[in-house]
Every structure is written in C-alpha cells, then in structure tokens.
Specification:
Blueprint lengths: L11 H45 L2 E9 L7 H9 L10 H5 L8 E8 L2 E9 L3 H11 L4 E4 L16 E10 L26 H8 L5 E11 L3 H14 L19 H6 L5 H9 L12 H14 L3 E13 L8 H10 L9 E3 L15 H17 L8 E4 H7 L14 E2 L16
Parallel strand pairs: 1-10
Antiparallel strand pairs: 1-3, 1-4, 2-3, 2-6, 5-7, 5-8, 6-7, 7-9
Length: 434
C-alpha cells in the first residue's frame, strides 16, 4: 500500500526537540491548561467590570461661553482643573476594584472648530456637574454655561466612510512623566501687549476651517495618585547625589572581603590592577557643583510634582468631506501648536505613532487597510471618551497651559463668546410714561 502523504525529511535534532516537547506537554497539560484558562477568565472578568462601569456613567455635555474682554491668565484655569481632581478615591481596595468594578471617574474638556467657529465644551459625569459649574463660575464669574446638544450625533459611527474622511493622532510625553513641559509662566510678560496666549495658534487654525471641515481637540483627565511624585523625588535625589539608606535585611551578612565580581575577575587580573579598581569610586557632585542642566531639571521636577496631577489623554481629530481638499495643512497647524510646549532639556509632547493616521507611521503590507483601521479606532475612542493606552501625567499648570479660555488679546472673530455681562437695569434709571 502506498503512502497517502509525501515523506517529510525532518532532521534528527529537530525531531528530538519536538519529541521532547510533546513528552513534557503530555505530562503537565492537566496542570498548565487550567492555569491558562483561569488567566483568560480573569482578564475577561476585568474587561467586563470596566465595560459595566463605563456604560453606567451618565455624561452631561456643557458648553462654556466666555466674555470677549476676559483678562485672566491661565492661572484661573488651574483652579478648574484642581476642582476636577475631586473624584479621586485615594485608592480602592482589591474587593472594590476587582469584584465591584469601582474606578475613578474622568472628565473630558473639548475645543471644537467647525465652519470657522470655535466652541468650548466640558463633558462631565452627572454626579459632578454642579461641582464643576461652581468651579467655572468661581474662576470666570461672567461665563455662561448651558447644556448643549451632542455634536457627535451629527456623524455616523463608522467613520471614515464614503462621505467623510478623517485624520488625527494622540500626543504623549517623550520623557518620564515627572519631567515638565514648557508652561504658561514662561510665556507671560508684564506688558499686556507683549503677552503671548498659548491657545491662540490652535484657535487661529480653527477659524480658517471651511463649511465642510471640523477640527476637534479632546483632553481627557483622570486623577492620579502619589506614584509619579515618588518617582520624581527619587530622580531629584539622584541629581543631588543623595544616597538612600536601604533597609537592612533580616538575614545575617557575611563579609568575605571580596565581591562576587572581583572573585570572577581574580584569575584573569593582576593584583595591582585589582587594588586600583577597588579604590576607584565614582562620587556624585554636591549641589554647588551640579551642572546647570541638572540643577534646572531638579528644580523643574520639584515644581511639577508639587502640584495636583492627572493621567491625561490629548487627542486631535480632523474631519472633512471626501470631495473637499485633503487635510489643507490643518494637522500641521496642530503640530505647530504643540511644539511651543516642548523643551530640549526637560520634556516634550510628541505624536503617538501607534495612533497616528499619517502614512509615514505605517510600514509593511496592507498599508491602506491598516491606516483605515487606525482612523476608525481613533474616532471610536474619541466618540466613547476612552483614555489612551499610553496616558501621560500632567499637573494642573501644564493642563492650564494646553487648554484654557483665550485672553482678550486673541482676535479670532468667530469665537463663540458672551457679548456682555447680563445684569438688571440700575435702580435710578428714570422711567418715561407715554
């Protein structure tokens, strides 16, 4: 009888490896498979809890209109972001987190440009609406806050489609979270005419949008705890040359007068070289001998970790009709807006290549299909207010620099603002009877 399958020549070494793997698997499968199944079930359970929590949030979309003659600096916006830290729980217990599905709430600040107009929105869970309205009125007494219709309902859920195309990306910190970006105090001048408003470049780009174009800026913030502050303190100690005293171990120490590395090098090293190597010790510079860069980094880290911080997601989406001009350079305007916050010796905001829809970020096979998938995923995350997979930690000063109400020096004509403060007529106003 002939063989049904052609003979396959398998090297003896490879066949031995495969045979060994099969033998081991046959002996331990009854133990390994349940562990894998439990891990899959546990991850599925956590996804279920997160989905249940997210779907239980009742969002309210508030539109905020500010007066044209507002003169307050972004310092006032810091107080609003500080109030947004109120949902922080200071850490849930394991039972609350993994069995009840409790998480910290987050809030969404949005700046929308469409048809040459710009609108400020705050998307907030219903439980915190009154708190955030009070914080906004306290910082900007002349502002108007109204509940708005959701502009996302104007678009289908399957963007991009045959009618609309989109582009966009998320911004993330390039360096460690405890290093700050350039903030608004570095842009301020004592003379009002020389004052620079960091939000102006983005609003100017939005004012140039045509009727079939929209540009969205979404800032998601979720309160964070002490972990990043402790990392910053450790980095400051390293820069200052302060050595931490490690806790002594409960096990007895045995000092043999030689380290493991010296023991390994001993047979290949001359005794003179060994003693010279042992005496060589790198000493860290004290404070007064620090380089200017290290001193600036230490001071900047201290300033950042001293203020309340959030896990932040910065997301930009540009939407246009397919029969219109492609992009029109608006994504380049976004890059220019972000570049002003970057420094060479501290931290920078850069586009996340995993979320960018730019063609140069995708390489390999099926490039068009993968870009289309990224666009759909970016719009889906924007529509569902999903935090990024790579959240950056920004404190309230950095957030106020990136997102705040424009100063009176911004001359964008189509900005949706309050024309004047509402008030009752003066009591001494004469009344003329006809």
């Amino acid at each position: 009888m002939g063989t049904l399958l052609p003979a396959i020549q398998v090297p003896s070494i490879l066949w031995g490896i495969i045979h060994s793997i099969l033998v081991v698997w046959g002996a331990v499968w009854w133990f390994v498979l349940p562990i894998i199944a439990l891990m899959v079930l546990w991850e599925s359970w956590k996804v279920h809890l997160h989905y249940r929590f997210v779907t239980s949030i009742k969002w309210k979309l508030l539109e905020i209109k500010v007066p044209k003659t507002i003169l307050k600096t972004p310092k006032a916006m810091e107080q609003i972001f500080a109030a947004a830290h109120a949902p922080y729980s200071y850490g849930f217990s394991s039972f609350q987190k993994y069995f009840m599905g409790m998480e910290d709430y987050w809030m969404v600040f949005e700046l929308i440009g469409r048809s040459g107009e710009t609108h400020f929105y705050l998307r907030v869970p219903m439980e915190f609406r009154n708190m955030m309205e009070s914080a906004i009125y306290a910082a900007y007494p002349e502002a108007e806050i109204t509940e708005a219709a959701d502009y996302l309902q104007e678009f289908p859920h399957d963007l991009p489609n045959h009618a609309y195309d989109l582009a966009g990306f998320e911004e993330v910190l390039r360096e460690e979270n405890y290093l700050p970006i350039r903030t608004y105090p570095m842009f301020e001048e004592p003379v009002e005419e020389r004052r620079i408003d960091t939000i102006a470049p983005l609003m100017e780009a939005m004012s140039k949008l045509k009727n079939d174009e929209q540009l969205w800026f979404q800032l998601l913030i979720r309160p964070t705890g002490e972990a990043f502050r402790k990392e910053g303190e450790e980095e400051i100690k390293k820069l200052l040359g302060i050595e931490e005293h490690k806790k002594e171990s409960m096990w007895p120490k045995f000092d043999l007068g030689i380290t493991a590395g010296e023991a390994l090098r001993g047979p290949f090293q001359h005794p003179g070289e060994a003693s010279e190597h042992k005496e060589t010790k790198q000493e860290k510079l004290p404070r007064f001998l620090m380089t200017p860069v290290d001193k600036e980094r230490a001071d900047a880290i201290h300033l950042k970790i001293s203020k309340i911080a959030f896990e932040a997601t910065l997301r930009f989406v540009y939407i246009e009709k397919k029969d219109g001009a492609t992009d029109s350079g608006h994504t380049n305007s976004i890059h220019g807006f972000i570049r002003q916050f970057n420094t060479q010796n501290l931290n920078q905001l850069r586009p996340d290549k995993l979320t960018s829809t730019a063609g140069y970020t995708v390489k390999g096979l099926f490039k068009k299909t993968r870009i289309r998938g990224r666009k759909h995923l970016l719009f889906e995350h924007y529509r569902k207010f999903s935090p990024s997979h790579h959240e950056s930690i920004l404190n309230i000063e950095e957030l106020a620099t990136v997102f705040h109400f424009p100063l009176g020096i911004v001359s964008t004509t189509e900005l949706e603002k309050v024309e004047s403060r509402r008030g009752s007529p003066p009591a001494t106003l004469p009344i003329i009877e006809e």
